[in-house]
């Protein structure tokens, strides 16, 4: 967490939490969801405005955390902005390294390297999830070729699990509420 954010929390410790205004989709994109967007429908059916400003995304990435309930948030200065998750707290990029041992690089949507894939899972839609040292992440659709090669090479052996069971099993909340 940024030092400026920690200082703001100390200075204003009782700022109310915010819900519904920020979301993370299955591609690892952040969306702002103002009141009219929220009134128009639930996420991800109505996404809102995609955040494209690189410095703002980097700020979100550095201040992305979860609470004891498994609800993920962006600490925006003194305010905790809880976010809606389309699929998982992490969206993962996968890339074959092209070395003889069949190694793969996995990285979170926030740029954190993944050093350990503990398990792999397929939901009823055929989406691939990896449990890592950071928590559960959905493999981005654009990286499924590399991920399929890893599964084919038995680097990962996915088990099946209904998506509805994943939040409780892996300890995260998709739609946090006060």
Description:
By secondary structure, this protein is α+β, with helices and mostly antiparallel strands. 21% of the residues lie in helices and 33% in strands. The chain contains five helices and 13 strands. It has helices spanning 3-11, 35-40, 54-62, 144-152, 166-170; strands at residues 18-24, 30-32, 49-50, 64-66, 72-76, 79-85, 90-96, 104-108, 113-114, 117-122, 128-132, 135-139, 159-160. It is globular. The model has no long low-confidence stretch (mean pLDDT 93).
Strand content: 25-35%
- Secondary-structure element string: HEEHEHEEEEEEEEEHEH
**What about the largest sheet?**
7 strands, mixed
Number of strands: 13
What is the share of helical residues? Answer: 10-25%
Structural class: alpha+beta
- Span from first to last CA? 23 Å
What shape does the CA trace take? Answer: globular
How big is the Rg? Answer: 17 Å
Q: Tell me, rounded to a whole number, the average pLDDT.
A: 93
| Strand order in space, largest sheet | 9-8-7-12-11-10-13
What is the count of helical runs?
5
Q: Which consecutive residue ranges, at least 5 long each, have pLDDT under 50?
A: none
């Amino acid at each position: 967490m940024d030092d400026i954010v920690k200082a703001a929390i100390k200075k204003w410790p009782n700022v109310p939490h915010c819900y519904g205004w920020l979301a993370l989709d299955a591609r690892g994109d952040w969306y702002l969801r103002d009141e009219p967007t929220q009134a128009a429908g639930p996420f991800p059916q109505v996404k809102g405005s995609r955040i494209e400003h690189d410095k703002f995304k980097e700020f979100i990435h550095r201040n992305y955390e979860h609470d004891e309930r498994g609800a993920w948030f962006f600490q925006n200065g003194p305010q905790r902005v809880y976010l809606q998750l389309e699929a998982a707290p992490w969206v993962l990029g996968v890339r074959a390294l092209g070395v003889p041992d069949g190694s793969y690089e996995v990285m979170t949507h926030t740029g954190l390297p993944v050093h350990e894939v503990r398990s792999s899972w397929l939901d009823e839609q055929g989406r691939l999830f990896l449990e890592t040292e950071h928590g559960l992440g959905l493999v981005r659709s654009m990286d499924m070729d590399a991920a399929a090669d890893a599964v084919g090479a038995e680097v990962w052996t996915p088990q099946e699990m209904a998506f509805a069971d994943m939040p409780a099993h892996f300890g995260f909340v998709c739609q946090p509420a006060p």
